[in-house]
Amino acid sequence: MVQDKQLSSPKEKTTWRKLFWVAKLVVTLLIVSYIYHTFENEQKGIQDIGLVYKTIFVRNHVLIISIILILVPVNWALESLKWQRLARKAVPVTFWEAFQGTLTGLAIGVAAPAQLGDTIGRVASLRSHDRLKAIGAALVSNGIQFYVSIIGGGIGLLWVGEKLGLDPFSRTVLNSLLIILIALALIIVSRRRKLTGWKSEKVFLSKMLSYFQIIGQYSAEDLAIATLYGSLRYFVFLSQFVLVLSLFDFGLNYTDLSACTALIFLAKTLIPAVNVLGDLGLREFTALFVFKQYNLPAEQIIAATFLVWVINVLGPILIGIFLLWKYKLKSLK
User: Fold this and answer.
1) Residue 244 near residue 283, CB atoms below 8 Å
2) Three-state SS for 23?
3) Which of 26, 89, 126 is nearest to 221 (CA)?
């Protein structure tokens, strides 16, 4: 029997390699399809996107554009530091491995709903037999960024909420939702050890629960530092968006631009995209709604939102595709 297993082993490895290659191909095609449809839809939204961008790519804007580009690696480096801090509670991980995993997760994330692709990409990129223990770390990482966006959006809502034109009932519902979510976060953090201490007699359920037990192992310091990284990343991304908007000379001060941008991030956080192709469209729709109060040109708002996506998301996605094809089956065992 041992000899039979040994003889069949090479065939099994070949089969797994083929399946792994097919999986990477399918994911890559989905990502490329996402990028293609994004550009196609954008061209429909702006009759001549080139003419719009000619007005901002001028010598006077070189410094601002340079700062925006410099902030791209800073943005993803902060996210990688947060991921490293949380993941290393489960498995050893270097900053470079965390950085690669972050970009891989970003790329796969557009090929799968919600945060599933992001989690798969991050966890699969870890070079450890115990990588599945980091599933809970990915959940915490995404949860921290979720709540940072909630708090930032809440501040933006306090600043420009009255100008949105929402009726009193809608504003009450939105404010109540934010308060409930923040209260829920406080309960989860304070009760995290009890919540992850559940036991089950069912083997499958017990195995699944073991992947989330890491959540109860985080100290207050771990969560505070991870939240600091998440907050800094939020500030960097918000700054990028505001700087891009400033290129169009809308005549708004930086405070109002920041508050409106925070509301765009809030909507993106609370409203899940209908499908994998809806992320940018949702952001643009929200931007148009938020900035409608200032009677700003719709084409320029869409162009600004698209430019942020190209600079801060498209490039890292392409790098993520490259990293995806670098991973070999032996490194994922």
Assistant:
1) no
2) helix
3) 89
Provide the whole-model pTM: 0.82
Task: Provide the Cα torsion 323, 327, 331, 333; round to 10°.
Answer: 110
Element (H, E) at 282: helix 279-291
pLDDT in tens, 149-178: 999 999 998 888 777 777 788 888 888 899
3-state secondary structure of 126: coil
Backbone angles phi, psi at 63, to 5 degrees: -65, -50
How many contiguous H segments (helices) and E segments (strands) does the chain have?
A: 14, 0
CA R_g for the chain: 22
Task: Tell me the DSSP string of 39-88.
Answer: HHHHHHHSTTHHHHHHTTSSGGGHHHHHHHHHHHHHHHHHHHHHHHHHHT
Distance from C-alpha of 310 to C-alpha of 102, rounded to nearest angstrom: 18
Question: How distant, in Å, are the alpha carbons of 26, 27, 225, 319 from that of 20?
Answer: 10, 11, 36, 19
Closest to 320 in 3D by CA, of 173, 120, 69, 147: 120
| Burial class of residue 298, CB neighbours in 10 A (0-12, 13-18, 19+) | middle
Amino acid making up residue 14: T
Name the residue among 18, 21, 20, 96 with its Cα closest to residue 319: 96
Mean pLDDT of the chain: 79
How many angstroms separate the Cα of 151 from the Cα of each of 59, 85, 160, 215, 234?
A: 37, 22, 15, 22, 11
Other CB atoms within 10 Å distance of the CB of residue 288: 16
Cα(257)–Cα(238) distance, rounded to whole angstroms? 9
Output the CA–CA distances (angstroms, integers) from residue 310 to 71, 146, 243, 306, in the order listed. 13, 22, 14, 6
- Mapped onto helix, strand or coil, the DSSP state of residue 160 is helix
Does residue 81 register a pLDDT over 70? yes
Cα 64 to Cα 45, 225, 285: the distances in Å are: 26, 30, 25
